[in-house]
UniProtKB/TrEMBL annotation:
It catalyses: (6S)-5-methyl-5,6,7,8-tetrahydrofolate + NAD(+) = (6R)-5,10-methylene-5,6,7,8-tetrahydrofolate + NADH + H(+). Pathway: Amino-acid biosynthesis; L-methionine biosynthesis via de novo pathway; One-carbon metabolism; tetrahydrofolate interconversion. This is Methylenetetrahydrofolate reductase. One of its GO terms (molecular function) is FAD binding. GO terms for biological process: methionine biosynthetic process; tetrahydrofolate interconversion. One of its GO terms (cellular component) is cytosol. Belongs to the methylenetetrahydrofolate reductase family. Its cofactor is FAD. The keyword Translocase does not apply. SUPFAM superfamilies: FAD-linked oxidoreductase. Its EC number is 1.5.1.54. CDD domains: MTHFR (cd00537). The keyword rRNA processing does not apply.
Length: 303
């Protein structure tokens, strides 16, 4: 049983859940910077969240690909210790085609079946993306390499408000996403957003106008504090609705109250997304369990 579970592709997990009319629930983690952070994540946060019985989880790949070994270690530990399919994030930054092929084969040897193919952020997360000599300029090239090597369910990132670096606007960005799907991506995970209308417009444009037929999982980040969400939304270009901003301004000095409000807001957001046909929820946990646990309990999705 365990081995079969480890073998599951996200596209198959989605198909089974869709047949059962159930949402796919997944959690995202990032590699901590310290040994203490590793222990807290692996021994406390992940076990607490896995009690909710998610369908899969994912582990990010630091800016500039700087956390490669640690990312692989965390992915491997979750799969071995918890028998849960775990998606490896992989970026084109600071890597030649051959180096990317090496990481992909290393992942394969660890039993990884699911990879999120990303262009990625430059080291430090600042400045312009620069293509590595012998590497890739666009994530669709990484998708094509994964498809060529075979044996993976391939995900890609989607931006309901358009990618912050795409100066031509969101419709052009969505054309790029369709190209990634055509190259072999079989599901999309979105950037965080706080206005569901943006997700619905994005989904409908991709499916009805561009003819995409893959699941588009909304990425959800429950707000933990006013300062944190302003920083994160500025980095990724996610707009904050005015009612959200005015509530958070009142709670600027009270992180506990802001987190409670964040749980309520995320619960409302997720309930509407699921009601309107979203295939599941991809929760950006920021390596913390309480908000995600409470949102899923509120939605009666915690087992």
């Amino acid at each position: 049983m365990h081995n079969r579970q480890l073998m599951q592709f996200i596209r198959d997990i989605y198909a089974a859940k869709a047949d059962a009319h159930q949402p796919v629930i997944s959690f995202e983690f990032f590699p901590p910077k310290t040994d203490e952070g590793d222990r807290a994540l692996l021994e406390k946060t992940i076990p607490a969240l896995l009690r909710l019985k998610p369908d899969f989880c994912s582990v990010t790949y630091g800016a500039g690909g700087g956390t490669r070994d640690k990312t692989l270690m965390i992915v491997d530990r979750i799969q071995r210790e918890h028998q849960l399919p775990t998606m490896l994030h992989l970026t084109c930054v600071n890597a030649t085609r051959e180096q990317l092929r090496d990481v992909i084969e290393q992942a394969r040897s660890l039993g990884v079946k699911n990879i999120l193919a990303l262009r990625g952020d430059p080291p430090g997360g600042n400045g312009e993306f620069k293509m590595t000599d012998g590497g890739f300029e666009y994530s669709h090239q990484l998708v094509a390499l994964l498809r060529e090597l075979g044996g993976f369910s391939i995900g890609t990132a989607g931006f309901p408000e358009g990618h912050i670096a795409c100066k031509e606007g969101k419709h052009v960005d969505w054309e790029h996403l369709k190209k990634k799907i055509d190259c072999g991506a079989d599901f999309v995970v979105t950037q965080l957003f706080y206005n569901n209308a943006d997700y619905f417009e994005f989904r409908d444009h991709l499916t009805k106008k561009l003819g995409a037929s893959v699941p588009i999982f909304p990425g959800i980040l429950p707000i933990l504090s006013a300062g944190q969400i302003k920083r994160i939304s500025a980095l990724c270009g996610a707009k904050l609705p005015s009612r959200l901003v005015s509530c958070l301004e009142k709670l600027a000095d009270n992180d506990e109250a802001a987190a409670a409000y964040g749980i309520d807001y995320a619960t409302e957001q997720c309930a509407e997304l699921l009601r309107e046909g979203a295939p599941g929820l991809h929760m950006y946990t920021l390596n913390k369990a309480p908000s995600t646990i409470q949102v899923l309990k509120n939605l009666a999705l915690a087992h």
